[in-house]
Specification:
The protein has 449 residues and is mostly helical. It has a single domain, classed as Orthogonal Bundle (Chloroperoxidase), CATH 1.10.489. 37% of the residues lie in helices and 4% in strands. It is built from 13 helices and 7 strands. The strands form 3 sheets. Strands 3-6-7 form a 3-stranded antiparallel sheet. Bound molecules: protoporphyrin IX containing FE (HEM). Protoporphyrin IX containing FE binds next to helix 3, helix 4, helix 5 and helix 8. Pfam families: Peroxidase_2. InterPro entries: Chloroperoxidase, Chloroperoxidase-like_sf. This is Heme haloperoxidase family profile domain-containing protein. It comes from Endocarpon pusillum (strain Z07020 / HMAS-L-300199) (Lichen-forming fungus).
Amino acid sequence: MKSLAVAAIATLLTTAPSFTRALCPFKREAGTGKGDIDLASVNPSKLRQILEKRDLRDVPVNHEDEPGLNKRQFTAFNENQEIDVSGVHAWTPPGPNDIRGPCPGLNALANHGYLPRSGVVGLVQGATAVQQVYGLAFSFALPLSLYATLVDGDPIAQTWSIGKAPPPLLGLPIIGNGDGLSGSHNKYEGDASPTRGDYYLNSGDVSTLRVPLFKALYDLAKDDPVPNYDLRVLAKHRKYTLENSISTNPYFFWPPFAGPAVSNAAHTFIPALMSNHSAEYPNGILDKETLKDFFAITENPDGSLSYRPGYERIPYNWYRRPLGPQNEYTTLSFAQDLVVLAQTAPGVVAVGGNTGTVNSFAGVNLADITGGAYNTQDLLNPRKFVCYFYQISLAVVPDILRSKLLGTVLATALNLLQNQLQPFIDPNCAKIANYNDDFAAQFPGAALP
Ligand code: HEM
């Protein structure tokens, strides 16, 4: 694997002038991090054995829909959970200048006027909308919106685009408005998404839904007696999307934040935030019609599926999960769901990528990247994952900011990062003092053309 990787990079360096990063020797050594084990090589059967041996009873599991684990019970159903889709919140498709992008949750919010219909969103506005409409905890929502503001938005105006770059703002010629979520490949948006295609396989178009990917998900439960796209179903789809990218995309790349954190969240958000918590199913059910509405899919009489970009909608009679600390979807809820994904798809916590050919996945040791603060196995410990989620942002974002901003603008952006994340950070979490991104140089997919 190692020699293959080096050969692939050597070829790339001679053939692709845009790939200018210095070649760093691959430093993976199993067990370099304290308590680390060699999960980075992504040997699924080995990882499954390790997971089976782990005593999951010490994990405060609180899943909505995983049979056999504590089924999450929400506080009593309340009519206020119904999301208004009438009047000012009536569904309207995007106009010619309105922006939509890779996130169906955000596209639907904009189509219903819960976010500006233009698709350009404010930092706090974005976080508040996803909390109020979907029940995503603010401590999770704000970092997501903050990340968008900093890595692909405008840190001075504190806005970001849910899709392509918005038109430049007068007076801010140096920083512009950012590239938007659609232009954030490897920084925010990543490969192996639930329904969007990989960057290198689709000429950089990461926003358009690919019907075969949606169909792969849809088919998993469509013929069930009571179809419900719950976490078990999404775990199967997660396995498929990861293996599909590794086996079809020579440039597949999974960096430390966009991979294990964002791509997996994109999968768990589907049952966690799109399920309908009606009076009949207070713990939530995600049926076929609801799934199709959220993904802008219609089913034709012959059973084929059609997609209309930007037509995502919140269904009629849709009830979000209840609000309040017991009910909202927190980073810890996500970390617990990640353990369930890993039981079906062990590779979900591996940082790494293909090395220029399909099926050449090489994992890197997270301990090497994080200066020993976190190892790959830590991502399967929900409490440690929560630490990792915030700490990796603090480690990665300054690098990105320094690569594009200068002077007081850079200082303002760095302050924004620290000040906004501070309230959510547990001081007992290990800090990533020495983040090292040299590992990326061995993966051709890390560099954008
Ligand atoms: C401020 C909040 C949010 C931000 C910044 C955000 C950002 C993103 C980004 C960057 C992606 C692309 C990830 C990838 O490459 O796979 C994405 C995908 C996705 N997001 Fe969001 N998101 C937010 C909230 C939500 C909410 C509330 C939901 C659910 C209601 C949601 C559901 C999804 C899903 C299902 C995908 C995967 C799309 C696909 O491939 O089919 N997101 N989001």
